[in-house]
Amino acid sequence: MAQLAHGALLLALATAIFGVGATIIGERRRIPELSQSAVRAVVGVLFLLLIADVILLTAFVTHDFSFAYVSSRSSSDMPLRYVVTAFYGGQEGSLLFWTTMATLLASIAFVRNRPRFPRLVPYAAGTFLALTSFFLFVLTFVASPFEINALIPAQGQGLNPLLRDPGMLVHPPMLLSGFASFSVPFSIAMGALFSGRMTREWLSFVRTWALVAWAILGTGIFLGGWWAYHVLGWGGYWGWDPVENVSLLPWLTGTAFIHSVLVQERRGMLKVWNMGLLLASYVLAIFGTFVVRSGLIQSVHTFAVSAIGPYFLSFLVVVTVASIAVMIYRLPMLQSENTFDAVLSRESGFLLNNLIFAGIAFATFWGTVYPIVSEAVTGSQLTVGPPFYEQVNGPLFLIMLILMGVGPLLAWRRSTWDALRRVAAVPLALAAVVIVVMLLLFGQPPAAAGVAAAVFAIGAVGVEYWRGAAARRRSTRESLPSAIVGLTKRNPRRFGGYIVHLGVAVIAIGIIGTQFFQSERQVMLNPGQSTQIAEYTLTFNGLAQSRIVDADVYTADIDVASNGKDIGVIHAKRFFYDGFEQQPTTRVAVKTTGFDDVYVMLTEWNDSGAAGLHIFVNPLVPWVWVGGLIYMLGMLIVFWPMPVARRVALTAPSRGKATGEAAV
Fold it and tell me: Please, are residues 617 and 197 in contact by the beta-carbon 8 Å criterion?
């Protein structure tokens, strides 16, 4: 079976190379049938990859330890759900998963859009196959998941303990898929550059798949924060770790693109900027993979370091140089069709918004690579911690929140200050009230400014919905809830985007609450002893030891009370997995009460029964998760199909009577 899977990968590589050649020869010699075979080659590569996937997954499920990858990542006493996740828990399997997901999305994109863009899609498919050839080469000759053990072990090593968590079921596949999916809009963009087919029609094609990539990656980042919060035990969900940073980079440039492409669609402007953002998003996705796989930068998230880093670095350089060269060659076709009519306009708002995203991306990139640069220059690796990102990116995120509120209120081409003041009056009033109340109650001017900016953005969304619903009610006489639903269905792209803005603003409030108002305490308690933190009293009841299939578990039972009122019992745990006894893992106890999270980690214990507890009270963290759900709801609405427009057919007058007939 390993030989069959390896043969499938070899055949997939040959098919991909054939597809690249078919595109080049078919387009140069004007042979449409040969050009179209590139799309069929993408589907063929997908079929062959699925064969390899099924064989590897079957080997995991049946505990076939003759596969070196299976024996190094799983064991027969692991629960089935973690056996399945071990598929992408290591270097080779995650690359196979990446390649499969990229090819799956590309197959859907190219097959569905081939009739609409018969000259563009073959170039896009050929570009994608060239990219995929690299991954297939690595999987076949450098990091194959189908290597065979010389001696078959009786038991496998098992999955890394930190990965034995329900988060493993959702975060890695979404994040890997997010990285991989950027290859589709990149291929479309390069196909447009190669073919010279850069009319406005192709923008809807590339915008849709850029949105898909952005949505998948954004969901993966959000799920990663949730996972880190309840597993790593440091009291937070985002630590500006290098691996976290590199996942954020393509999301930032992708977000900038899906905003500024609206300007290109409507006014024919920012063409070079948008093309650069598309190319940068894919390059940054590859850069992220290079950082994770090379081990150049130390990270708590690095689980699959290997020697393939130089291959990815070479691929990164080739892709970057080639894409920039093609874009420079096509610069005459990327000239703007219009200019900015006024500083105060939606176009200017989008451009400023893009510059802020670019600034955040650059600061994050520089902080991430600085250890490498410092080591090359000084010989010692200097790390950049969270304070750098908070001081540099904090003000930029504040400006972004303000622009997120102002942007929807601006008119295309030209706005006036009077018109802007009228529509922004309510959001500004809400923001003013919030900033005054927060300064009086808590002080902390930076926190007050951040929450006020978020409230301003939420108010702007409310104003846009109110204006649209009021206009709809005047014509349809619907109730307000029905008008809001109808408005969203009529223009899901616009109003789904507003809901995404709403989710981001709610997340921002949650982040500010944690950042500025978190309480922390470390204590050592005997059974029956209590400790106080903020308005909460925690009583340690005792430590229990138990056994699951493949680990010893130590559990601290803790009563939680708020202002003297009992609010429940929580259980903080430590797991010692078989074969990994020196690498214990944490399951944090979290009690959500009102707007707060009481967050407790079991750190140590002694023979007398005393336990060490690391306790946090995290205000407004539930808002982060609620905001994330709102964000994902908005993304789903954005992809909701636009309603079919009604067309009215008027018949010619007959015998002196005019008749009308509505055709739907």
Answer: no
Maximum pairwise Cα distance, the chain: 104
Sheet holding 530-533, edge to edge: 530-533, 536-548, 551-562, 565-577, 585-587
pLDDT at residue 296 in the model = 61
Asked if residue 549 lies in contact with residue 79, where contact means CB atoms within 8 angstroms, the answer is: yes
CA 263 to chain centre: 24
Beta-carbon contacts of 332 under 8 Å, excluding residues fewer than 6 positions away, are none
Architecture field, domain 519-622: Sandwich (2.60)
* Residues whose CB is less than 8 angstroms from the CB of residue 247 and which lie 6 or more positions away in sequence, other chains included: 175, 178, 179, 217, 220, 221, 224, 288
All residues at 6 or more sequence positions from 471 whose CB lies less than 8 Å from its CB, including other chains? none
Residue 232, token pair as written in the block? 């790593």
- Res 647 pLDDT > 50: no
What DSSP element (H or E) covers 593?
strand 589-593
Report yes or no: 60 and 34 within 8 Å, Cβ to Cβ: no
Residue type, 338: N
Residue spans per domain, the chain: 2-343, 411-517+625-643, 519-622
Alpha-carbon separation of residue 82 from 65, 145, 293, 586, 631 (angstroms) = 16, 18, 22, 17, 28
The two tokens of residue 387 are: 């304070």
- HSE-CB at 579 with a 13 A cutoff on CA atoms is 16
Question: For residue range 354-406, what is the model confidence (pLDDT) as tens digits?
Answer: 999 999 999 999 988 888 788 777 777 677 888 899 899 999 999 999 999 99
Place of tokens 């959001």: 427
Task: Give the integer Cα–Cα distance in Å for 228 and 236.
Answer: 7
In 3-state terms, what secondary structure has residue 590?
Answer: strand
Residue with tokens 């905003």: 259
Q: What is the DSSP letter of 654?
A: B
Query: In terms of pLDDT, which residue wins out, 648 or 611?
Result: 611
Phi, psi angle pair for 53, to nearest 5°: -60, -45
576 DSSP β-pair partners: 552
